[in-house]
Amino acid sequence: MFYSGVLVTANPGELEKAVQSVEGKGLEIYHRDPDAERFIAVIEGETIQSEADLFKDLITLPGIQNVSLVANLEDTEEEQQ
């Protein structure tokens, strides 16, 4: 499983619309900064390609101005044991 933390910046005045758009894609929101109109979300994917495809899709969602990759992690079976 692959995980990426992303910083999502909303269009001015559209923070809630951006949050709803991202949550609609199944991502979990972990922190909101309403003053800066941005938030942190986590992308989960079975493959790096599925994760990358979702990352690219985020920028096209309503209310979103920018998406930046902050962190990436691969959780392998060996690491779980």
TrEMBL record:
Q: Which organism is it from?
A: Mesosutterella multiformis
Tell me the protein's name.
Chaperone NapD
From what superkingdom does this record's organism come?
Bacteria
Q: List the Gene3D superfamilies.
A: 3.30.70.920
